[in-house]
Amino acid sequence: MPVYQAPVADTLFVLNDILGWERHGNLPGFSDATPDVVEAILGEAGRFAADVFLPLNQSGDLEGCHRAADGSVTTPKGFREAYAQFREAGWGGLSADPEFGGQGLPHTLAAAVNEFLSSSNMAFAMYPGLTRGAIAAIEHHGAPEQKALYLPKMVDGIWTGTMNLTEPHCGTDLGLLRTRAVPNADGSFAISGQKIFISAGEHDLSENIVHLVLARIEGAPEGVKGISLFIVPKFLPEEDGRPGARNGVSCGSLEEKMGIHGNATCVMNYDGATGWLVGEAHKGLRAMFTMMNEARLGVGVQGLAISEIAYQNAVAYARDRLQGRALAGSKHGEKAADPIIVHPDVRRMLMTIRAVNEAGRALILWTALRGDLAHRAEDPKVREAADDWMGLLTPVIKGVLTDKGFENAVMAQQVYGGHGYVREWGMEQFVRDARIAQIYEGANGIQALDLVGRKLALNGGRAIQAFFKEVGAFCEEHRSNEAMAPFTKSLKKGLNDLQSATMWLMTNAMQKPDNAGAASTDYMHLFGLVALGYMWGRMAHAAQEKLAAGAGDDTSFLENKLVTARFFMDRLMPETAAHLARISSGADSMMALDADAF
To answer: Within a domain: residue 332?
Structure first.
């Protein structure tokens, strides 16, 4: 069975030495999250992930979920008991509002815990993960009585939540959806239609499931401007809040999927189900996007999480597997062969995964902190800047880290050779599980289009200009520091490429929109490299400062940071030039063939 140890030390390094955790102690929720408390929470979360979630990962994948003739779904053996432990420990309410039973701790801390849980069992972690998104949508857009009825039970975990967008005939283009909402005399609506790919749509973990469903009110305009959002519970709540009669919603079938078999991905049928409007009529996408943005960041965490557990197991295998001799001479002459970790190409794969993981973790936590500042800071300018960062980086984190997460899982599988292809070692499951993260919550091509087509120009380009200024100022601040030169020179070159790509888009995309579409994925990955490189620049500087001050037991940890940072700058950052070249080539060759020529 695969092994996993939560990267607690690395997470604490980011929180304390990169984010300056204690500097934010004046913000609501942060005063309770002292460094000692944070370390204790992360340590316990790591143990919980390894001891409770991980043992069910392979068995849950092999068994999968089962649907009975009546539409009820049973999760794999052990899931119910593990979910009960999850609830009792309060993990689902870590960052939720205390008004509804949550602990009110920073979302940044919850993001770190989510990584550990997703690494140990991605399919399982999706059940409470989707509930958090549904909580966010109801909290931001629901009526007071809806919040009072649903949120305490969802925060507790006794009720779970889902999001229902996709239909058989439409995916991202939600303007095509056909699910209808007919007004009832009591102010509720009768919801009818079918939704597909609904993760955690039906299961036996909670006593009720709260579905958030996009539908079109009878007579509403066609297209996205006529879409509304509804709460449609599995069981209709009684006046005292207990689950009552079964609603007209059921699981028609379970999707037969490539991976995440432990999660019940359902076709959901709504047959006149009773639902209640969330927020304003015809403004459903705005409410749902609160949930989707939360989910997109969570999916970026999944990309990192699978990459991390795949890396840890590939390293363990590479240390033990004996094959061949080191090119520079035998390292273990007493053995029949050297462990494969001595070979440069194995090192290339392991170092690539490691360099992306550590920078990706820093970028996620850096961005999650911006989310906390956007909601908790007193200064409006701080909130605005934090919100700008969140909007700009959300598609980058989702798109880049899930693309890299899948690539890294495949690389880790390659380290195993043939053993990586067979089930018993667990690596093929990581590859299968990682693949979905590139698709759901908006496929990565859509993330790239969102970045290029919407986020860059938003508010007159305020967010991207602030990003350029921040990264440029960091490079300038350390320009005369010789120890930082290996990092800042490569980072500045990458930043220059990103700025050039942005200018090219400004010049060429408006007059020919296909240029923007053709450039979008390369632009997203170019942006991602610079953002990850910026994280490595900050981590390298922090490591150098701590070493200069006398690091003690942390010396090896910090020296390894500097080596990994150098690898990223030497081997990965130069890819910005290739992305820029592809962007600058335009759309002509991409769009030249007639459709029937393919």
So the answer is: yes
Other Cβ atoms less than 10 A from the Cβ of 101: the count is 17
User: In this structure, is residue 376 part of a structural domain?
Assistant: yes
Split at pLDDT 50, 70, 90, the class of 589 is very high
Catalytic site residue 207? no
The pLDDT, as a whole number, for residue 391 is 93
Domain boundary among 396, 428, 452: 452
Cα separation, 277 vs 481, whole angstroms:
58
Domain finish residue from 452, 480, 510: 452
Tell me the two tokens of residue 208: 């009720």
Is the domain of 556 the same as that of 433? no
Catalytic residue among 39, 384, 441, 470: 441
DSSP 65-97: -EE-TTS-EEPPTTHHHHHHHHHHHTGGGSSS-
- Residue-wise pLDDT for 184-242, tens only, equals 999 999 999 999 999 999 999 999 999 999 999 998 888 888 899 999 999 999 988 89
Write the DSSP assignment of 550-572 as a string of letters: --GGGHHHHHHHHHHHHHIIIII
Answer whether residue 117 is part of any domain.
no
Three-class SS state of 102: coil
Cα distance between residue 226 and residue 229, in whole Å: 10
Q: Is residue 275 part of a domain?
A: no
The pTM for the full model equals 0.96
Residues 420 and 468 grouped into a single domain: no
Q: CATH number, domain at 340?
A: 1.20.140.10
When divided into structural domains, the chain yields a total of 2
pLDDT in tens, 296-346: 889 999 999 999 999 999 999 999 999 999 888 877 777 889 999 999 999
Q: Which domain holds residue 532?
A: 461-591
Phi and psi based region of residue 475 (left: phi greater than 0; alpha: psi -120 to 50; beta: remaining):
alpha
